[in-house]
Amino acid sequence: MLVDAHHHVWTIARGDYDWLTPDLPIHRDYGLDDLRPLLDGTTATVLVQAAATEAETRFMLDTAHASAGLVRAVVGWTDLATSDAPARIAALAADPLLKGLRPMLQDIVDTDWILRSDVGTGLRAMQAHGLQLDLLVKPRHLAILPTLAARHPDLPMVIGHGAKPDIAGGGFAPWAAGMARLARETAWCCKLSGLVTEAAPGSTADDLRPYVDHLLATFGPDRLMWGSDWPVVNLAGGYNAWREAAHALVPAVAHAAIFGGTAARFYAIDVPAAVK
User: In sequence order, what are the residues at sequence separation of 6 or more whose Cβ sits closer than 8 angstroms to the Cβ of residue 247?
Assistant: First the structure.
């Protein structure tokens, strides 16, 4: 069983991808027909929001339902801070393919935003409806995440992209300490994704090794899940190059968990025997 635990699709004309500017090489439409030739045996995927709108969530759910069983989980978006967040969350959670929500914390100036009381109401509604929280964070958030864990101990959470360490700038030690604390004090999972785009251009797997080794040592294979971060990964070598690097960096004994089992368990994915 192989699961890509983190990828996107987008249609530029939808108009809500504020970060996806025309100067970027990935400023074009990407759909599942572009992804399928790259999957090489992957039996399920997790489709993750790339725009901070509910229209994006509906678009992804429509994509998932039309995917012939490939997309088995959707991580969407709604504004967790609004007074009607519980009702909005309930409406979205009525779709069985909606497995989680992802506030785009990296783009919010207030590092403590996720700790606000109004956001807490939304997080409690997520837990009540059996949803998971994807944490799109950077190292600046690591100090406040233990507080988040203490306030919501029963809400399943996963750290996206390994918390985006500054690999290009050699920012290892503070990130490593923060991640070790979270691994020790929480039951959270972590995505082995997005690392190649945090490294300097021309970097090799060896440049990623200290970060991958640290995540393996702290979280362990049963709390790590591999994601392609496609098509963003096209900015740093592409899908196949990142998958091959991850295969080389992860010990073979851990492949079953990291490349499938952890994501299937975390997102409650019922993977079909075969996906065409």
Answer: 255, 259
Distances (CA, A) of 78 to 40, 104, 139: 33, 10, 24
Q: Give percent of the chain with pLDDT exceeding 90.
A: 97
d(CA 48, CA 74): 6
| CATH code assigned at 75 | 3.20.20.140
How many structural domains is the chain composed of?
1
- Rounded to the nearest 5 degrees, what angle is found at the Cα of 98, between the Cα atoms of 97 and 100? 135
Residues (pLDDT < 70) of the chain are 271-276
The residues, any chain, with a CB within 8 Å of residue 244's CB and separated by 6 or more, are none
Q: What domain range includes position 248?
A: 3-266
Which residue, among 112, 149, 156, 108, has the nearest Cα to 131 in the 3D structure?
A: 156
